[in-house]
Amino acid sequence: MGAMGKPRAEDPRVVRTRAAVFEAARELFLEHGYSGTTMEQIAAAAGLTKRTLYNNYGDKHALFTRIIADVLAYVERFARGLDAELSVEAVAPNVRDALEAVGGRLALVILRPEVIALRRLLIGESRTFPGLAAEYFERAPGQVLRSLAAAFANMSRHGLLRVADPTRTAAQFAYLIAGEFLDRAIMIEDLPSQQQIVACAKEGVQTFWARYGSQAHHNSRSR
């Protein structure tokens, strides 16, 4: 603690070193996997000695789980933002346009190259880290689906959608906006352009709207 009890600012050199280590580790893990990456490689890529790396980060396992946690934190922040974006007050003026906007942004998050690489990594390392894939699903895709389900249920109560099973409806929404591209990206690393992703998401929302849009809002769109 510094003067007057204020927390002492971190040494800028420590901050830069930590950032360099995380960037090097993330790139190496995502490209080569856990077993294909060594602490020596991480140290070299970060411009550190192996001793310095071990002194500050313990071991490869600890560094790997920290990298996963950082990616999860990003997706969790997006999922929490959905609650506000899909509130009744936010979407009521034009439900379909709001869904198209959210669907496009969600598809771009799902299909971010680093997110695809992380999913591939977790699948490849599932035997080494059996709990990580489950944690990833719970905190990332699972949280997004729960946020969508809660929002759709609330919209249905207010007559903005016609939803009987919010959980199933959320899963259908997610697959309609990005499912085919996600499967291709994970299986054969074929990632479309952002323009293609957004266009596909918009078409997916149009299909979703045809099934779940309330009659009143359908009529208002046709006038």
Short description:
By secondary structure, the protein is mostly helical. The protein is 77% helix and 0% strand. The chain contains twelve helices and no strands.
Element-by-element helix/strand order: HHHHHHHHHHHH
The general outline is elongated
The fourth-level CATH homologous superfamily of the largest domain is: Tetracycline Repressor, domain 2
Strand content: under 5%
CATH domain class of the largest domain: Mainly Alpha
State the CATH topology of the largest domain.
Tetracycline Repressor, domain 2
Residue stretches low in confidence (pLDDT < 50, at least 5 long) are none
How far apart are the first and last residues' alpha carbons, in Å? 65 Å
What does this protein look like?
77% of the residues lie in helices and 0% in strands. It is mostly helical. The longest helix has 26 residues, at 60-85.
